[in-house]
Every structure is written in C-alpha cells, then in structure tokens.
UniProtKB/TrEMBL annotation:
Cu cation binds at residues 67, 71. Pfam families: Cytochrom_C, SCO1-SenC. Disulfide bonds join 67-71. PANTHER family: ELECTRON TRANSPORT PROTIN SCO1/SENC FAMILY MEMBER, LINALOOL DEHYDRATASE_ISOMERASE DOMAIN-CONTAINING PROTEIN. This is SCO1/SenC/PrrC family cytochrome c oxidase assembly protein. InterPro entries: Cyt_c-like_dom, Cyt_c-like_dom_sf, SCO1/SenC, Thioredoxin-like_sf. It comes from Georhizobium profundi. Residues 309-338 are annotated as: Disordered. Belongs to the SCO1/2 family. Keywords: Copper, Disulfide bond, Heme, Iron, Metal-binding, Signal. Residues 323-332 have a biased composition (Polar residues). Residues 309-319 have a biased composition (Basic and acidic residues). One of its GO terms (molecular function) is electron transfer activity.
Length: 338
C-alpha cells in the first residue's frame, strides 16, 4: 500500500512544478506567517517570522521523524540541493523543515533526524507546540490534518521581494539551486550552474529506452543517501555491494527494506544498528527497477576498478626503473599480487 502511495505521489507532484503561491502577491509579513514560538533542533526557542523568515530567501519543507517513505527521501533530495548551494546555505538561503508531528517530534528527535542528513549552517528543523506549528504550517500551505497526508512539495520564498512558490524536491538538484538563486535578484553565485533537465517520472519511463535506467533511478531516488565509491552518507556506500551481499537479498532490500528487517534478517538488523538515524525508505520499486539498479551499481564498481587500475598502471609507467623490475609481479591490470 505504502509503496503504491509513494509512486502515486511522485507522479502527482512531479507533474506540478508551477509557482502557484501567487508570485507577485503583496508581501506576506509577520501578520501572515506569525511570530509564534517554535523550537529548533538545538532546543532553542525562536520566533517563526522574525528569526526564520524575515529578510531571507528560504526553502521550507514538512517532515516527521518517524516517517518511513516520503520525508527521508525529500530530505535527502534537499541535502543534494544543499551540496550544490555550498557556502550559500546559511548565508544567502536558509532551509526550514517543519514537523507535522510535534506531539512526538521532540527537539532531540529532530536533532537526530537532522544529523543523519546534514551538518552545517543554515538548516533549521522546527518543532514546538502543536497549535503553533499547525497555524504556521497552514499558512505555508500544509492544510492536511493527518501527518501522513502532509504536502511533499517544498515552498520557496524570498521575504524581501514577497515572492513565494512551490516546487518539488524531485526537481534536479542543480536546477533547484538555480531556481532558488533566481529568487534573489541581488544574489549571484560565483559559478553559474547550467540549468539541468527537469525530470518527471514520465521522463524516467521514457529514459528507459535512451539512457541507463538504473543510473536515472539511482540519481533520482538513491543518491541523496548513497554514493558509489565516495563514502558513507545517510546510508552505506554501495561500491561493491554485490560482493558483500547476495543479489536476491539486495533486490529484496531495495524493494522493501522494512520487510527484510522484520524477517529477522541478521544483515538487516546489523545495518539498522549501524545507521541509527534514518531508516531506508520503501521506494515502491518493481523487480525490474531493482535489477536495473543492481546492473548500474555493478557497472559503476567495474568502472571504478578500471579507473583505479589505470591510475596504478600510469604510476608504474612513470616510476623510475627499479633494479629487479623485471621480476615485477604486477598483473596486466597493474594490480600488484599479494
Ligand atoms: C533516505 C535515505 C535513503 C534512500 C533515499 C535510499 N537509501 Fe538505501 N539505505 C539507507 C540507509 C539508512 C541504509 C542502512 C540500513 C537501513 O537503515 O535500512 C540503507 C541501506 C541500503 C542497502 C544495504 C547496504 C548494505 O551495505 O548492505 C542497499 C543495497 C541500499 N540501501 C540501496 C538503495 C537504493 C538502490 C536506493 C535507491 C533506489 C536507496 N537505497 C535509497 C538510506 C537510504
């Protein structure tokens, strides 16, 4: 059920990316957003408008820390935007993620959730009294009563110009960074980012004939939390995953991590202990999607192994000839035997 919901959600909001919080409306100030008190992930009490919105360019999202589907994915996507924005986050633009479950989301839980994704300035995770958060969320466009129905769009705003818009975290991170940048006429980033293609799930399906489908899926759904050969992020680095794990296991895990966890699978339990902050969400992927992803991950592992072998070969080539080099035991790929 959940899985289907996710796919439906993806389809629904990938299609709408039109600024429809009325771009040129009169400035929405403290009367609109209110100065109700909220509590940050550091346990600090702040006033919503004056401390988080006033005079800033902001990106607002809605989350709850026990969410197992969209919120971690959205937050991971925002982390990718944060990567593109670099130093500008905390200087030119500020992220605000608001809990839709303040009854359960203590500042400590918000802190743990935040830490799993990002450690740096400019991103406030907000909880507080349920009444205050409800009012604030309502004004920002989240009018759902149930926490699981909360909107999955992000709200972009420039308080100085009064420009507000909605967008989807599934927009390409580079594209989103550009859109955010463009909200501020005074702000020019040093490097101009070429507007990347905007991908919808329909595009994804079309891509399957033209591009490596596993790569497209990976970039869109996994890369906020996983890298291949760069190191652990929210989840483990996936380089060489097929050597560590059985492919059937990987497939099952990619398709329904919660089910594997609940089956008392030792590997899953161990992973759960190691990556405490956030659980891998259920992404609603098909058997074919999982196969494509594994093919992509294996291809990446091969590419990296080849690149490393070439680098080693290059080094050997440039190294001064050592006495006894004719007994060199390197194999054809340049990898020394041990
Ligand atoms: C919101 C973050 C998030 C997203 C998005 C995500 N994962 Fe994960 N993934 C995790 C975490 C955290 C773990 C560690 C175990 C756990 O908590 O489930 C994990 C574990 C895994 C594992 C097991 C790794 C191992 O060392 O055994 C695989 C395989 C995996 N993820 C693949 C994927 C793929 C493929 C995608 C995209 C389709 C994806 N994940 C999307 C967070 C994420």
């Amino acid at each position: 059920m959940k899985a289907l919901c996710v796919v439906r959600l993806l389809l629904a909001f990938a299609a709408v990316c039109v600024p429809y919080l009325a771009a040129a409306s009169p400035k929405r100030g403290v009367e609109y957003f209110t100065n109700l008190e909220v509590v940050t992930q550091d346990g600090e009490t702040v006033r919503f408008y004056d401390d988080l919105i006033k005079d800033k360019v902001v990106v607002v999202s809605f989350i709850f820390t026990s969410c197992t589907d969209m919120c971690p994915i959205n937050t991971a996507r925002m982390t990718q935007v944060a990567d593109v924005l670099g130093d500008a986050l905390g200087k030119n633009v500020f992220f605000v993620s608001i809990s839709v479950d303040p009854e359960n989301d203590t500042p400590e839980k918000m802190r743990a959730f935040a830490d799993a994704f990002y450690n740096g300035p400019g991103w406030t995770f907000v909880t507080g009294s349920p009444e205050n958060l409800k009012t604030i969320s309502y004004q920002l466009g989240n009018r759902e009563e149930k926490r699981s129905d909360h909107i999955n769009e992000i709200i972009l705003g420039n308080d100085r110009t009064g420009e507000w818009a909605r967008n989807t975290p599934f927009n390409e991170p580079e594209r989103l960074a550009t859109i955010i940048q463009e909200m501020d006429p005074e702000w020019r980033m040093e490097t101009v980012i070429p507007p990347d293609q905007f991908l919808t799930l329909d595009d994804l399906r079309r891509y399957q004939v033209s591009a490596d489908p596993g790569q497209v899926l990976f970039r869109k759904l996994c890369s906020g939390c996983h890298t291949v050969g760069v190191g652990d992020r929210v989840g483990p680095d996936l380089l060489g995953i097929s050597e560590r794990r059985d492919e059937e296991w990987i497939k099952r895990y990619i398709r329904d991590p919660a089910a594997v966890r609940q089956s008392n699978d030792l590997a899953a339990i161990e992973l759960g202990l190691r990556y405490g902050g956030v659980r891998m969400p259920n992404l609603g992927l098909s058997e074919n999607d999982a196969t494509d992803l594994i093919t992509y991950l294996n291809g990446q592992a091969d590419n990296i192994a080849r690149a490393r072998a070439e680098a080693v070969a290059q080094q050997d080539h440039h190294a001064p000839v050592q006495p006894g080099n004719q007994n060199d035991t390197s194999d054809a790929a340049g990898q020394p035997h041990h």
